[in-house]
Design brief:
Blueprint (H helix, E strand, L loop, with lengths): L8 E4 H4 E4 L13 E3 L15 E2 L8 E3 L4 E4 L8 E3 L4 E3 L3 E6 L10 H4 L3 H9 L11 H4 L3 E4 L2 H39 L16 E4 H4 E4 L5 H4 L3 E3 L15 E2 L11 E3 L4 E4 L8 E3 L4 E3 L3 E6 L6 H7 L3 H9 L18 E4 L2 H40 L1
Parallel strand pairs: 3-8, 13-18
Antiparallel strand pairs: 1-10, 2-9, 3-4, 5-8, 6-7, 6-9, 11-20, 12-19, 13-14, 15-18, 16-17, 16-19
C-alpha cells in the first residue's frame, strides 16, 4: 500500500474528536434496550461480544449511538476500546467518542487512531489512582497523530478490517478444534463411553479417580532448590493446558504457601472455583501454592496424557463443583475426588485416544499462534501509519 504519510497533517485528538456526555432518564422511551459496562469490553478487541439488558436494572444514564467509539478510562493498560454496535447506555467509566466532522476524520478510522501504542502510553501515564487508576479526556485529547486524507483513511480502514476478519476467522477455527476435542473427551467420560470407533470391541475398566491419580506434595524452599518460576492460580487459564505466564522467584511475591514443587509433565489443577476449569500440563519446573494440586497418573493403569483430558471433561467438572465446599471461594479437598468414577480402555487404546486429542489441540495451538501473529502485524501497521 503506497501511502504518502510524510505529507499528512498532525492533529490532536481533541481537535477532531468530541467526547460526548449526553444522558437520558427514559432510555426505554427513547428506544434504548441495552447497555455496555466496563466488564463487557474485551481487551484489544473492537467488537462487542457481551452486553446487558436495561430491563435487568442499572443506574447508567450516559448514552451512545451506533458507531460511536467507547473507551474504558479505568486501567488503560487493559486497552479496552470498542465500536458500539447499537444505540445504548454505558457506565461513567467509559468515554463516548465521535468525530467532529466526517469530512476531516472518518468515524471508521477513529478506533484505530486511539489504539496505537503512543495513545495507550499517554492514557496509562496520565492515569491517577492505585487500585483503579483512571485517565481523563482532558489528558488523552492532547494525543497527536498523523491525519491522512479521506482517500487514504478509507484504504487504511479497509486494510485493518481485512486483518481483523482474518483474526476472527482464525479465532473461529481455533474454537471449533477445541470444541471438537472437548466433545470427544466428553463422549469417552460418559455413562455410555464412546469416541468414534476407537472403543469398539474394547473391554473397559471402571476406576476411582484416586486409584489412578496421586497428588504430589513435594515441599521445598524454592531459593535453596534453585527454582526460578512461580505459578499462581491466575497463571492458569481456563480450558488451556499450556502455562503461558508465571512469576519470577526473587522478583515477584512468594507467599508462604508457594512451596510445592512441580516438574515438567506434572498436571496442575486449580482446587478453588473448579468451575473455572483450570487444568494445565507443566512443561517446565517451578513452585505453586498448596491450593494448586500437582498430579501424576498411575501410568500402569492410566496415561498421564489422557488424564489431563479427562480432568477437563464436563462430567469431571460437574462432579468437582458438586463436592466443593464454601460459597464465596468454593474449594475441593483431594479425598473428595475419590468417588468420581469413570471407565477406561487398555493402555494401547488410551495412547491412540490421547494422541488424537493432542493432535487436535496442537493444530488449535498453531492457529492461535497465527492469530497472535496477525494481531502483532495489525499493531505494527497501526503504529507505523497512525502513531
Amino acid at each position: 500500500m503506497n501511502l504518502q504519510s510524510n505529507s499528512w497533517k498532525r492533529v490532536s485528538v481533541g481537535e477532531v474528536v468530541n467526547e460526548l456526555r449526553v444522558t437520558t432518564d427514559s432510555p426505554l422511551e427513547n428506544g434504548i434496550e441495552y447497555y455496555i459496562g466496563f466488564e463487557h469490553i474485551e481487551s484489544e478487541n473492537l467488537q462487542v461480544k457481551q452486553f446487558g439488558n436495561i430491563g435487568d436494572g442499572i443506574n447508567f444514564n450516559k448514552t451512545f449511538r451506533k458507531g460511536d467509539v467507547l473507551f474504558g478510562k479505568i486501567r488503560a493498560y487493559l486497552k479496552k476500546v470498542v465500536v458500539a454496535p447499537f444505540d445504548g447506555l454505558c457506565s461513567g467509566d467509559i468515554l463516548v467518542l465521535r468525530t467532529k466532522d466526517e469530512n476531516i476524520l472518518s468515524q471508521k478510522l477513529l478506533p484505530y487512531a486511539i489504539t496505537t501504542d503512543g495513545f495507550y502510553k499517554l492514557a496509562i501515564d496520565s492515569s491517577i489512582g492505585t487500585t483503579m487508576p483512571r485517565t481523563k479526556w482532558q489528558y488523552i485529547s492532547k494525543h497527536v497523530f498523523p491525519l491522512p486524507p479521506l482517500d487514504d483513511q478509507e484504504r487504511l480502514v479497509g486494510l485493518f478490517q481485512n486483518i481483523e476478519q482474518s483474526i476472527i476467522y482464525a479465532d473461529g477455527q481455533e474454537k471449533n478444534l477445541r470444541k471438537l476435542c472437548k466433545s470427544l473427551i466428553d463422549g469417552l467420560i460418559s455413562d455410555k463411553p464412546s469416541i468414534g470407533n476407537l472403543l469398539k470391541g474394547k473391554k473397559l475398566k471402571r476406576v476411582h479417580y484416586c486409584d489412578v491419580a496421586q497428588k504430589l506434595t513435594r515441599r521445598i524452599d524454592p531459593v535453596d532448590y534453585g527454582i526460578k518460576r512461580i505459578v499462581a492460580g491466575e497463571n492458569l487459564e481456563a480450558e488451556d493446558f499450556k502455562i503461558r505466564t508465571w512469576g519470577i522467584v526473587g522478583k515477584d511475591f512468594l507467599g508462604p504457601a508457594f512451596h510445592v514443587l512441580f516438574q515438567a509433565g506434572d498436571i496442575l489443577y486449580g482446587s478453588r472455583r473448579t468451575y473455572l476449569k483450570k487444568v494445565a500440563l507443566a512443561d517446565f519446573e517451578g513452585v505453586c501454592a498448596n491450593t494448586t494440586y500437582v498430579i501424576r497418573a498411575n501410568e500402569e493403569v492410566l496415561l498421564q496424557d489422557l488424564l489431563k483430558h479427562i480432568m477437563l471433561s464436563e462430567k469431571f467438572t460437574q462432579y468437582s463443583i458438586s463436592v466443593s465446599k464454601g460459597s464465596t471461594n468454593p474449594y475441593i479437598n483431594w479425598k473428595d475426588l475419590d468417588n468420581f468414577t469413570f471407565e477406561i480402555p487398555d493402555l494401547e487404546t488410551q495412547r491412540v485416544i490421547a494422541d488424537l486429542l493432542d493432535e487436535i489441540l496442537a493444530n488449535a495451538e498453531k492457529i492461535r499462534e497465527q492469530k497472535e501473529t496477525l494481531k502483532k502485524l495489525k499493531q505494527k501497521l497501526l503504529n507505523q501509519t497512525l502513531g
